[in-house]
Amino acid sequence: MSTNPKQNPIPKKHALLRPERVRSGAQEWERYIQTSLRRQSKMLQKAKVPITELGEPWQSRRRQAILETLPTVEERCAVGDGLHPNTLGEDWVRLCAITENLPNPEFQEQILCAAAIWILDHADPLAVHPHLPPEDALDWQDFTVSFWDAQYAEELVAAMSHVLIHRNGPPESDGELTTLLRDRASAAGIRPDCPERRTFEAICALLPPEAVARETAAFRDLLWQWVERYFAQMLPLHREIARKHREYNEHCAAYNQVCDQLYALLSEIRDLTDRQRRGGRGTAPGPLLPVLQNPTVPEDRDGSLPLAERLMGRVHTLFLELERQEKEERAVLDATKSVLLEQQTLWLHTALGDPPDREEAPLPVEDPYGLCFALLYLIDTGSSLPWLYGPVNALMQTVLESLPWGIVEFELEPEEEAPPMPDPPPALPDWNERRYRREGDQFPRSLAQLLYEETGCLLPRTLNRYLPRAGVLAEYGVTGTEAALLLSVMGALGTARRQQWLWEPESEDAPAQEEGPAAETDPADKAELKRLRAALHEADKAARDARKALEESRTQAAREHRELADLRELIFNRENDQEPEEEPSEEAEDGFPYEVRRNTLVFGGHETWSNAIRRRLQGNVRFIEKDFKFDTSIIRRADVLWVQPNALAHKAYYRIIDTARQYKKSVRYFTKASAYQSAVQLRDFDREG
After folding, report:
1. What are the DSSP calls for 571-612, one per residue?
2. What confidence score (pLDDT) does residue 390 get?
3. Cα gap 216→354, rounded to integer Å
4. Which residue spans within 432-575 are E strands per DSSP?
5. Number of H helices, E strands in the chain
6. If pLDDT is split at 50, 70 and 90, which confidence band does 167 have?
């Protein structure tokens, strides 16, 4: 048995990072785009994420749109020196190849609702009215936005939204999701020959061409502003990665030079060994790397050291240099991974429809209603812009957040206690003080009188109804003149929405009104009939609002009852110190991994628990890390929130619960410490839906 010490391995040279082949020509880019779209689709299909618009003709239309806009992106977002020529193009394809369509039907319904209001603002209502469906033909499930408009009755906005939703016939649905905007006909460039389509085109013909051109131009300009913002953040990351790659190659080249020196030194050692083995039989052995028993080598100041020791000292020095170069290479690779992670985060926020940087001022959205109409109009007229899914999804998220209802839902009576009144409190104007007079006028006027002279409207006798909410406005930074103005408008519009009627319903036994010229021409009868119809309309609307409020109250009560039951069981288990149940073996688990169907968020839990439950649940579920950066948008899109209170900070817990209350989301609690039992609890609840 050999007693020779183990030899150090001879190092191999490191391969340098080579730039990819430059892609040129429309055909090469089209193949690359098609491959990217297929890869994204397969990834989501494998994850069983419910999604629409995966097949044809959507994919062909998207491929064409990305290819058409590529030159514009390269022109507007110059890459500069130091980057691969395909960097910008590949990033654009990756951004637009996001397969996620506009987040959900409710999101699309809100866009169409805003577009409907814009159409009513710009077309003659008397000309539009004959084209609208009757009220009994409306599907109120399509009208999910809760608001009261000072200009249009709810039925009018709902009827206009119905026309937009059904413009190409009944909306397409796969059982889980419905496509309302970028439907199959739009993707294929087909205008179906159906009554709904003719109605839509007749209404669009009533719109002023200059207004349509203005809004579509504003949409294009804002979309490219978003793209420029995105690449203003992404391209520096690409440049940093390119710089890291060059730095890595420099270290690799230096490492390889040291290897060359080492190989030459080994050859010299082999020659020395061959000369020292005079009289030996057979072929001399291959080069042996001397084993350094002592890492320190004495200095050879006078040349008296044996040659072998001098060579071993040089080998030792080269090995130290190789080790240093390897550390430098690993440091560069670690830094590159950090930049790549930052890139992935930026892209992921875009995939979720969030702005690239929440800290940056939002894009200047002047008319969100017009931009919603512009998206619909550009889809209908064959523009390529609406088929750039990543940028358009993120832009429309910003546009929707600019609408009055885009961030929070209206609550008739806020549940939370209002903050204290700011000091000093907002000074509302005295609407009845007569101190405004034009030159030469005999009588001074009040603000209420000036309002009546211009509009014929009477203000409510008091505008202090919302004054207690001044503390809420102060929390947003709305104070002084702005607060007084907003509180006055809130008082006027809030009172108008609750306008009171006093009328006697016509008795079923009342004699029928005589027919004839007198009945037809009597102005008093016409006025009374008009008043009664308006009163009936208001009564019907109030009944619908009451039914909707009752249903929401029942739903909220059911959610809170279930949440309370979870909390009770959780507290009971903790107070009785129940032993944690043993985790079953993988063979004993039945029904796992389980595909979650509802859009589910999971907060809290220790790392061991989190890792154990993750492997049992997949599909439409997202586990939020304990050090996550809080963003209300993730809760807004969720269907249900699951909370494991351990390993969750109190501040984060209360913010999660407050946000869930704000968006009326179901909250459930894991009542057991076992990851398996927690997975069973979530699975059983998910199956109920």
Report:
1. HHHHHTTPPPPPPPPTTT--S-SEEEEEEEEEEE--HHHHHH
2. 86
3. 22
4. none
5. 21, 6
6. very high
Q: How far is CA 642 from CA 563, 608, 635, in A?
A: 10, 17, 11
One DSSP character per residue, 330-353 reads HHHHHHHHHHHHHHHHHHHHHHTT
Return the exposure string of 257-269: e unless at least 16 CB atoms fall within 10 Å of the residue's CB, then b: ebbebbeebbeeb
Going from the C-alpha of 200 to that of each of 128, 175, 207, the distances in angstroms are: 10, 26, 11
Q: Could you give the CA distance from residue 362 to residue 355 in angstroms, rounded to a whole number?
A: 8
- 15: amino acid identity, one letter: A
Cα separation, 686 vs 639, in Å, equals: 10
Q: Which of 84, 90, 87 is nearest to 18 (CA)?
A: 84
**Residue 172 host element (H or E):** strand 172-173
228 to 246, 356, 401: CA distances (angstroms): 26, 11, 20
| Cα gap 566→671, rounded to integer Å | 6
Closest CA to 489 of 471, 520, 510, 467: 467
Cα dihedral 442, 447, 448, 452, rounded to 10, equals 70
* C-beta of residue 670 within 8 angstroms of C-beta of residue 681: yes
Integer angstrom CA distances of residue 550 from 153, 556, 567, 627, 640: 22, 10, 25, 39, 21
**CA nearest 95: which of 339, 374, 352?**
352
- 77 HSE (CA, 13 A, CB side): 27
| Distances, alpha carbon 403 to alpha carbons 19, 176, 370, 396, in Å | 46, 27, 11, 11
Looking at residue 546, what DSSP letter applies?
A: H
Domains in the chain, ordered, with CATH? 26-97 (no CATH), 105-207 (no CATH), 216-265+328-407 (no CATH), 564-688 (3.40.50)
DSSP string, 142-162: G-------SSS-HHHHHHHHH
Tens digit of pLDDT for each residue in 46-82?
A: 656 556 677 788 889 999 999 999 999 888 887 666 6
- Burial pattern 179-214, b for ≥16 Cβ within 10 A else e, equals bbbbbbbbbeeeeeeeebbebbeebbeebeeeebee
CB 659 within 8 A of CB 687: no
Q: Which element (helix H / strand E) includes 666? A: strand 666-669
Rounded CA-CA distance 419/36 in Å is: 52
Q: Is the pLDDT of residue 183 over 70?
A: yes
- CB count within 10 Å of CB 251 equals 21
Provide the 3-class DSSP secondary structure of residue 51. Answer: coil
Angle of CA points 147, 153, 155, to nearest 5°: 90
Cα 588 from chain centroid? 39
Question: Locate tokens 């420099």: which residue?
Answer: 250
For the cut 60, the answer to whether the pLDDT of residue 659 exceeds it is yes
C-alpha 302/C-alpha 310 separation (Å) is 12
Question: In which band, very low, low, confident or very high, does the pLDDT at 569 lie, cut at 50, 70 and 90?
Answer: low
Count the Cβ atoms, other than its own, within 10 Å of residue 289: 17
**What is the mean predicted confidence (pLDDT) over 255-264?**
88
**622-658 residue pLDDT tens:** 888 876 766 676 787 788 999 988 777 777 887 888 7
pTM: 0.64
Contact 317, 323 (CB under 8 A): no
